[in-house]
User: Fold these one by one.
Assistant:
Number 1:
Amino acid sequence: MDSINFGVGCFHFGFKQEEVKMNGEQYLEHLKRVLSSISNINNIDFKHDDYFIESELELNKKLELDEGDPPFPNPKFLQIKFDIYIPKRIQSKYFDKIEFPFKPVIENFKVNITYSYFMPVCFIYSFEHCYQDFPSDAILVIREFLKENVIDDIINFQCIGPSPFHADFNLQEKRKDSKSKYFLESIVNKENTYSSINFYIDDFNDNTFEEKVNLLFFELNDELALYYRITSFNNQIMNGWMEIQDKLEEFQKTFRNISFISSLKSPSLRVKKINELYLNIIDFEILLLGLNRSFMDSFNVIYNRKHYYLKSFNENYLQDSNEYPIEQINKIISLHDKRFTKNIDLIVLLVTALIGGLVGSILAIIVN
């Protein structure tokens, strides 16, 4: 019986430039030239539909996948496949760089990047069976290699974490009765390391084992793409929150120790900054609501079908998403607002008292 281990990540070949105008066919031609220029890469193959080839790709700002931006281009169907050779000494360099205690054992890998409606998903595997225990490490190696070697003025290599996905996958041929094409035998959650996800497929059909492997990739693609879409949403939300934190810190540095006299000099600036902070919070809450709604729509699309395998991963990942202290930040802004309002009230009281005293003095002079 054949078996194979594979790792999963989210890899993408995006645009390095801020302004781009080309069609899908030109993009693929250029990407093939870039990949072909790397001597370690061969057997490059693209599968796509006619719509992508004819579609116009226009971009007017730089997009980065790991910043929460959507992948661009993001075709409904595109598969990028190639073989890659990475010598053990180069792999050791990457592992040493991150202080990872792993000794490379093979040098030839197969890369399959498949786009779906959500995000691109990368599957990496090898038919050299000595590479059995930690296939997710191949994701790390090839990620670092592509970062270092994809050098071009137009196209760049992008990825989003976690790449590798926090699991090692295995597929084996085995006579197994199941209503599904693939039978998910177990998800083993290990302590202090990645989970193991084991699949079996019957060995009765006439497909080659490599064809069965690619069919499994296709079967898993949408669920894994959804996982990385959650990651992208979380990155967008985190960036929005960091912007609020930066502006609040700037505000506090500017006005924390401001004297009463100084507050008289810049009331309009203070009001403007407080209003900006309130608007930032409102924008963030709108972003949060919109992304959560979009995610739930995506979640329902995936899990309304009959067969799925990784729902628990996506549910747990969603539950582990960060919560943001919006209410506490609103209270901090409100305290600044009340402090400023109190100063204004004191100013009004002082001015009123001065005017009242002046009027009283004038009247006394007139009466006398």
Number 2:
Amino acid sequence: MSSENKKVGNRLYFMNDKSIRDGLIAQRVKPEHLISFLSKKGIYVAQDSTKPMLMDMVQTMRFDYFDYLYLSSLLENPDRRDNQATTELPAKFTAPKISTALTSLTSKLESEEVGLSYKVSGKKVIVEANYVDTDYSKAPMRQRTPKKDVIEIDFSAPEDTSIMHPATEMGKKLKDMVIEEMNKQLPASVEPIEIDFEHHPHELRTEFFTKLLDVFDYKMYDVVNVSVRDSNGDDEDSDVTSELRNAALSGKKLLTSSFYQSLAGDHYNIYKMSWKVRKAVTIKVDPEDDSKDIFSSDMSDSFTIEAKFDDKEKSKGFSYKVKAVHRYNSSKGTLNVTTGKLDKHEVEELSKLLFKAATEAYLELTSDKGKE
């Protein structure tokens, strides 16, 4: 492979006049961008030239691939925060073994135009993958989204290693490739542990989600949305959210409520749920009397969590996301109406607790139950 081919990869490029014009008329393309584009081709125009005039000039020119890259970069979609997923490997790894695996993977990904880098930090390895996600269903100049996927490999546990990754197509592909290379560092390959209800009764899938309403010290505050489907693949979520919210907030036992029982009887199961939690903390009522301390979540921030099965038909591909936070306003004694900025440490702590709760619930529900 030539050095030029390694640099730009294999390309099949074509863009017609309509595609070019559709891109140029976008508001994000400013006159100064077009002036710069023309000047690089040796064409100099007045700085106060209007955009329509500049567009007429640009459209008469022959576009090559690098012209496409420049103009489409002005219209690139922002990289949004994706849902996360975690996979566990039942094996102990060391930093050198993980580094060897990632070094091998780095060279393999070059041909796919994915830049991989990593660093060891304590008992973790932070892997960063940079690439461009191309959505061919969009207009040619709006297809590109620069992505930075972060994969965290935690080998602090004595008997297993966890791999947290984005729950995207590329994130899952990278995770699988990382596991393949890490398995090569072991005397015998191990199977990853993942939450998968494909071959388990449908009622367990719903019970699994209800077990996540309280995430250890993070107590359920509200149910935002619940999506369910039946065994025929039909979706239904209009009445489910309010019914489950009422049952949960009223203190009723969800699993014994009549509506919950009707879900199981009609072969419906939850595949996606959003809810709010608040962390229960010790509140000092009397600084000199510990016996009056209250363990409550009434003065804590509210976090919105989403959990779902990416493959809702088979109830597999469990992923999750800390979506938003409403800060507690101590001066008003209430939660702020508007959302605040999520702190990285808060997201990391809650994400790990959520996955731990999900893993424990999955093992509890499937260890002694039959399969469909």
Number 3:
Amino acid sequence: MAEKTLSTVKNKTRQVEIDLAKALAIIFMVFVHTYEAHWFLENSEEGAGFVCAWIIEFLGGVPAAPLFMLAMGMGVVYSKRSTAVTYLKRAGQIFGLGILVNFFQQWVPIFLRPDVAEEFSANAHSIIATDIYSFVTVTFLFFAFLKTRKHPIPITAAALVICAAISEITYPNSIDTGNVWIDSIIGIFVRTNEYSYFPFFTWALWPLLGYLFGQLLIRTENKMKMYSILAATGVVALSIGNIAINWSPDDNIINSLTEANMDDVGLYYAMDTWNLLWSYGALAIEMFILYLVVKLTKNKIPELFNYMSKHIMSIYVLQWVFIGLATPIFDKVTNVFVCAALGAVVLVLTLASARLWELLVNKIKENKAQKA
């Protein structure tokens, strides 16, 4: 059903700040994923090394995956190919891609490095639930359902409240059935163990918020006013969240994202209300800043950023291929600056491969068109 009519649409052109948000999110994710995969965590860093690790961890937190998911929800509103069938197809494609990439990430190292076979074999069950693919699959299934409804906005708002409630109820406990394969499947929806990276009922808040925000954005005539109000709500949310979080200083997302270690990584993937509120505040302020950047540059951002925004899922998939292939070569890096440089190499290789893949696909399409 139609979600918007011509009489209500005021701001229907491509929103450059959304492209910028997606591009920055994927850059931050590539660096933090390389860092987490290869830095030797037991090797403590001091001075400049600590600052470098802190920056990678912080930017790889809220400004990365949550920002990507927020932008994904906004993109649903602006998509020109936004139908239930489209999202059903994309859900199936992404789930299949997730299985394929997790094979490279979890199983290929077994063949390349026999000495790590036992470690990776023990985590074999994570092939169906590791990382963001399962979450995006369920999210697209929800959006497919939403496209069949006459009143999608109130349904989304209700889903947002339900997800927030389930996230609060299940935090910080984990469900444990005693069967790792069953736990991996349940972990797609609620946290079960350390491999429940993106449980749907916690992380769905970001694309759902993005969808509601996109519905507001496409109808607004004064973007500066709207983003200013958004930033104001962000400051309030950040302040309230920060005060509430400080009641339990050892159990919060701020420590998880600013201590340059992964000891509290679970707090990032499974948050309670206050941690979610703090994260919302940070995201709202970030979107306001990105809008100001776009406004100051008169809607012009590097073409590379536009490309990254349009091909974000391909880039996300390919990064794990290169991170996985680097495992037998680098394994544990003891210098965080070397690890950051490795992240830059992975990013360049990923972008080059994404471009080559795009050219190959286009060439195949051209050949088929000529034969037809």
